[in-house]
Amino acid sequence: MSSPVQRHVRRTNSSYLTDRSNVTPVKTEDARWSLLDLVRRCRKPLGLRDRDIAVLRGLLSFVPQSADPNSLVVFASNRALIERCDGIDERTLRRRLTNLKANGLLARKSSPNGKRYRVQDECAESKLTYGIDLAPLFAIRSHLIALAEECSREEIRCKALRSVIRDILYHRAETIQPALHDLACRSLRRSLSSDQLAGLIQELQENLPQTGAEQSSVADAVTVSDRQNDRHIQKSKKEKYESEVAPEKVSTASRSSDPGSTVMGQTNDITVSECMALAKNAASFASVAAKDWGDVVRLSDTLAPAVGLAKTDVESARKAMGALGSALAILGIIEAFDRIRQPRAYLQALANQAASEGVDFVRMFRSLTNCSAPSARRITIA
């Protein structure tokens, strides 16, 4: 029995669906909300509050999606604005509009009767415009982008410095004066700038008694001898550390059973000084200059939380990559933080690759550090 549906109808429908799927338009970014996101990210240096962001969002909702330069003036009444701003009080609305104007995000021109409207002539050309002009906001887009990037770097700085303070409080709690210890604990709960946190770290270091080399659990995993000599990382069948001065080799025999101790392929050597020279961001947060690979591993453990890496992530990576391999991976992620959207997933992918195929850790580290732009991504402490 033949089908009641004609063949050409089937072909027409299938071809129509195929053509329709091929011409699906690509959704473009809305300039209004991308600007609002930039303002939200850098609201602290702009002196804005959450209500300012809400009012700005309400104003942008009256602007067409095309963001035509001739359509950036909002003529909505205060009542309409209040509805778009989640029903805030009118006095709050007036204060927030004044604050937004003071910060250069909008311009206002009031009419004699206090209303917002446009006066046109017989040719439909605007002669007078009374309203809230958002052109200043769209004009400073490039400035907001740069400011948002600086805010991101400041956030990374603060996270790293807080990690350093926690590390000092954890390992040297008994040697810190009680008053200074309480001040440091309170500072961790406050919203301080990177300069203030750096000053606190300097004060903590100045009041610490001078002791010998600090012992750490990492030192058991990484065998180091003379702290005054730089060492190379050389990948062969086992991870080995070579001194630039002494010919003898120091191997990590205690980790010979770890997956990270076996690496396929060959790689170039790198010294501690070269490692810190490439990892400029991480080196700037070190309380003391790294003298051996134990210091490098400890520094990576201290800074890992600053880029969103939990202790379990570091331990998992260390099992697959070894102490030095995971340390180089973490320092490389810190340098390339602006290019890596998900540091945890990236580190896990490196660990999986090291466990299954093997990874040239030095080449990976050089790739991550060389691709970052120093002018845009270097983290400095004043």
From TrEMBL:
It comes from the Bacteria. Transmembrane segments: none annotated. Residues 27-166 form the Plasmid replication protein C N-terminal domain. Residues 12-21, 251-263 have a biased composition (Polar residues). Residues 1-21, 211-263 are annotated as: Disordered. Residues 275-369 form the Plasmid replication protein C C-terminal domain. NCBIfam families: RepABC_RepC. This is Uncharacterized protein. The lineage of its organism: Bacteria, Pseudomonadati, Pseudomonadota, Alphaproteobacteria, Rhodobacterales.
